[in-house]
Amino acid sequence: MIELKNVTKVFPTAEGQLHALTDVSLTIGDGAVYGIVGMSGAGKSTLVRCINLLERPTSGQVVIDGADLCAMGAGELIAQRRSISMIFQQFNLLMQRTCLKNICFPMEIARVKKAEAEKRARELLEVVGLPDKADAYPAQLSGGQKQRIAIARALASEPKILLCDEATSALDPKTTRDILRLVKDINRRLGITVVVITHEMAVVEEICTHVAILDHGRVMETGTVEQVFSSPQTEAGRRLVYPDGVVIDQLPAANVVRIAFNGGSSYEPLIASLAIDCGVKVNILGADTRNVNGQAFGTMLLGLPADPAEAAKAAAYIKNQPDVTMEEVRDYYG
Amino acid sequence: MADWLISFFSITDPKLVKNITEQVPYLLESIPFAVWETIYSTAVATFFAYLIGLPLGVILVTGEKDGIRPLPPAFMQALNVVINLLRSFPFLILMIVVMPLSLVIVGTTIGTPGILVPLVAAAFPFVARLVEGSIREMDRGLIEAAQAMGCSTFQIVWKVMLPESLPSLASGFTNAFVNILGYGAMAGSIGGGGLGAMALMRGWGRQQFIVMYTAVVVLILLVQIFQTIGTHTALRMDKRTAVGQKRGKKK
């Protein structure tokens, strides 16, 4: 379990002190895939570097499985870091070593016997799906392949925790999905706790179980991905979950409702069944919905019929749907 | 051979051919040893210059405020001042200044052993700066990755910094070698040996211009040869290039 307790990080700069993190407290359970999301400059990279103490917090505690990293001596910290692996946006592979030697590197510094290390490295190449790249140099690989090698290297030390710092931000969408699937697969099979730093909600949707929203160095909200996606509680959360806002054109002056899908098992054809069951036709004014782990999340703006009786009927019907909440919208006019 | 050379030089500048019967046999006899002396003193001086300069270059990077093992700022400042000071010394003056040191270490101030100490003294600060530059070129992300993997400071230097900057270090090495070769030639003026002494003492001193030009041409050839070898080696070492990768695969 990773516990960050009141972590604050202040950087002295020429223009005075920069508060990268302010009083951050997070608990990341074993086996979770924990997303830390925020805009650029929110302090995500600093936060993840506090977990393995690449950045030493100005104040606060970093506790991993009950042990406070900040209180450790250099030797202890080095031992602890070997159980926390990290992958990076820019891969950070050793360019003068072959892929096999790159994967051997963490074992080499931990003084694992060479033959044993190479055997394990070849197994890891299989795990990441690149068994034929053992003798290739990183410069000969594509971005996605480099990240796979980096993942294999990260697994070589048999870590408890895998930190991913914008690991897919330099990759195209297809490669991003493949890499995320690999990470998720590793999480499931090996039970490694994964911490994912990203500015893309799509990444969180794809693999995370829990999420924390970071804004200006503060944790704005935390929870399961389902909770945060269905009803973001803060402005920062809404900005990330609905980056473009809900597009509304020429709304009628009244009878507009917003419905939120809170993770029903799949999309019920709500609008169609409304028309069939009640004979009421509604107008979709805007929608922003998404599919997270097979569950429906998002909002939809509906214009109800002008006739009060029909509108009431439709509203009653929607309210009876499971996993759907409805609220009237009064504050949007044109 | 001697006859052919005499007739070749006779048809050029008459000033050149003064004492020609004396110069050509001398050249043929002395050139091989002078070349050997030059290469030997350069190689030994380069070795010791790296023995001192390489660790200093590493410390210049690792010891600074944001480095992987910060050292006291006062020490770093002093180190920088000393290196800059030694580098700004004109070589001819430096050679004279370190003569007492030379007496203590190698027991003489003349001949090939006598120029080793001045050469090393002049070259190691330069080497330190070359090494510093090579290591600084390296991607900082690699160091961060190594730290995250739990590398000790020594492991980062030995297994990440130096191997990753090897191609750049190799071209720096060539640079240093060629520079020391040049300094060694200059050391001929205060009693060193080798091609430089031949050109200065015999060629210029006794106005034997064939000797002087020949020694200079041989020096130029040596520089060309070492530079070419160095550049190729650096390129073939670099696994980021197609040439380097090909070489690696064969192994």
Structure description:
The complex is a heterodimer of chains A (334) and B (251). With 334 residues, chain A is an alpha/beta fold. Helices cover 34% and strands 30% of the residues of chain A. Chain A is built from eleven helices and 14 strands. Chain A has helices at 44-51, 74-81, 99-109, 114-127, 143-156, 173-190, 201-207, 225-230, 235-241, 270-278, 308-319; strands spanning 2-13, 16-28, 33-37, 59-64, 67-68, 84-88, 161-165, 193-198, 210-215, 218-224, 256-264, 283-292, 295-303, 324-329. In chain A, helix 3 packs parallel to helix 5 and helix 5 (143-156) runs parallel beside helix 6. Chain A is elongated, with a radius of gyration of 24 Å. Chain A starts with a strand and ends in a 5-residue tail after the last strand. Chain B is an all-alpha fold and 251 residues long. Chain B is 80% helix and 0% strand. Chain B has helices at residues 2-10, 20-62, 73-88, 91-97, 99-106, 111-136, 140-148, 153-164, 166-186, 194-205, 209-237, 242-250. In chain B, helix 3 (73-88) packs across helix 6 (111-136). Classes of the chains: A alpha/beta (334), B mainly alpha (251). Chain A binds chain B through residues 52, 54, 78-82, 84-86, 88, 90, 92, 94-98, 105-106, 108-110, 135, 137-140, 157, 163, and chain B through 139, 141-142, 144-145, 147-152, 155, 159-160, 163-164, 166-167, 237-241, 244-245, 248-249.
Helix and strand composition category of chain A: alpha/beta
Report the portion of residues of chain B in β strands: under 5%
Which two chains have the most extensive interface, and how many residues on each? A-B, 30 and 27 residues
Q: Note the main sheet of chain B.
A: none
**Rg of chain A, Å, rounded:** 24 Å
What integer is the average pLDDT of chain A? Answer: 87
Helical amount of chain A? 25-40%
